[in-house]
């Protein structure tokens, strides 16, 4: 629906809850029952966020994500995006898989240092979060309607021009970290956000205080220096953008820094001290699927399009398509070839060069052109890098 109208097409009257505080309490209870970790309620007046948004767009930091510029200031004006909106229910859902070990951050760092292994961002190893959150937010709306009668609402989850971190921060779900992601003292940043725009004047929840202090761990850890200043990210340099949103050739200057990351990057979150408090999901949806639990680059490179579609069904990875997937894996294989000199990598790359698209062929050629390091300076007998990578060189902040 494009606005907060009822089924008849006429504007919905603004419902007046007989007891807004009681309704807010019920909404919190229902949200937990539906698998959400926390909810808040935000006002819709985000005028103070507009200058920062305009400056970010003017600097071109959104890269090829043209939709961000097209919608312009609507992102900071919920009542213009969805007429009739007076409040936004913000929701947090933790996504670490249920079997995540206590030392998961150390394990992720170790994996990024293994050239032959593939790194997929933790959030993308399970079910597509868009589907999970949207469905459960809609069920939350249905619970509210059952309590107060029909009301205007619209569900969002990373699917429209919404300033979700700004709204979540203003409603007390956390504060914006220097890496621009939302942080919470009891949950770190390993969670998804969703929103329910409503025409019900629920009481707003107060914002949280910031607790980054003088820490610069995320800025220091970013492999491509995409965090150009505290609280400002140039998406054009970000590995998550380059491997997911960007659909053309990956700029050569960033390919080495990508390492073995084939979908997204968690480095800025992994080194954040607050993520020692990251929470495991209560839902099976975000458990890692077997093909993505501990993937090897050569195994992923062998996926033809049919295999890719089958193994990413219901996964957020599927939306980038097989061509972008191969491009990403080719870059990672080029880095592995340089680090290991393993002839199996060169053979696998060369085997797919004939008939490759222009995009893929260029990345294969780059990968094969990487000069292999001498064995003693690249990989130990156990397959571990003996020379520090950009990830190894980062000292985790004191916890």
From TrEMBL:
Which NCBIfam families does this UniProt record tie to the protein? tRNA epoxyqueuosine(34) reductase QueG
The cofactor named in the record is: cob(II)alamin; [4Fe-4S] cluster
Q: Where in the cell is it found?
A: Cytoplasm
In the record, what terms sit under GO molecular function?
A: 4 iron, 4 sulfur cluster binding; cobalamin binding; epoxyqueuosine reductase activity; metal ion binding
Ordered alphabetically, the record's keywords are: 4Fe-4S, Cobalamin, Cobalt, Cytoplasm, Iron, Iron-sulfur, Metal-binding, Oxidoreductase, Queuosine biosynthesis, tRNA processing
Report the sequence similarity comment from the record. Answer: Belongs to the QueG family.
**InterPro entries for the chain:** 4Fe4S_Fe-S-bd, 4Fe4S_Fe_S_CS, QueG, QueG_DUF1730
Q: Which residues form the active site?
A: 158 (proton donor)
Protein's recorded name: Epoxyqueuosine reductase
**Segments of skewed composition (Polar residues):** 375-399
Q: What is its EC number?
A: 1.17.99.6
């Amino acid at each position: 629906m494009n606005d907060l109208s009822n089924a008849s097409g006429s504007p919905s009257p603004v419902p007046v809850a007989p007891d807004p505080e009681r309704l807010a309490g019920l909404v919190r209870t229902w949200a937990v029952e539906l698998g959400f970790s926390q909810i808040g309620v935000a006002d819709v007046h985000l005028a103070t966020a507009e200058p920062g948004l305009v400056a970010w767009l003017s600097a071109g930091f959104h890269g090829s994500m043209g939709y961000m510029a097209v919608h312009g200031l609507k992102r900071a004006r919920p009542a213009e995006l969805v007429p009739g909106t007076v409040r936004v229910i913000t929701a947090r859902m933790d996504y670490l898989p249920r079997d995540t070990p206590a030392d998961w951050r150390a394990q992720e760092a170790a994996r990024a240092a293994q050239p032959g292994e593939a790194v997929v961002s933790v959030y993308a190893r399970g079910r597509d979060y868009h589907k999970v959150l949207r469905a459960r937010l809609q069920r939350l709306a249905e619970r509210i309607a059952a309590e107060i009668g029909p009301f205007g609402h619209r569900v969002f989850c990373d699917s429209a021009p919404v300033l979700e971190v700004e709204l979540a921060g203003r409603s007390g779900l956390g504060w914006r970290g220097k890496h621009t992601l939302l942080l919470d003292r009891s949950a770190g940043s390993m969670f998804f956000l969703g929103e329910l725009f409503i025409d019900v004047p629920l009481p707003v929840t107060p914002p949280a205080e910031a607790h980054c202090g003088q820490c610069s761990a995320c800025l220091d850890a970013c492999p491509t220096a995409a965090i150009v200043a505290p609280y400002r990210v140039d998406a054009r340099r970000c590995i998550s953008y380059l491997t997911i949103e960007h659909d053309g050739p990956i700029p050569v200057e960033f390919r080495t820094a990508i390492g073995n990351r084939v979908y997204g990057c968690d480095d800025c979150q992994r080194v954040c001290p607050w993520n020692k408090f990251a929470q495991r999901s209560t839902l099976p949806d975000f458990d890692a699927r077997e093909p993505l639990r501990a993937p090897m680059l050569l195994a992923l490179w062998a996926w033809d399009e049919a295999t890719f579609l089958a193994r990413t069904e219901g996964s957020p990875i599927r939306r980038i398509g097989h061509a972008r997937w191969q491009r990403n894996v080719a870059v990672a294989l080029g880095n592995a070839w340089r680090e290991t000199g393993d002839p199996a990598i060169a053979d696998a790359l060369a085997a797919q060069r004939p008939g490759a698209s222009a995009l893929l062929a260029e990345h294969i050629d780059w990968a094969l052109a990487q000069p292999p390091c001498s064995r003693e300076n690249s990989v130990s007998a156990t397959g571990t890098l003996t020379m520090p990578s950009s990830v190894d060189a980062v000292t985790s902040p004191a916890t």
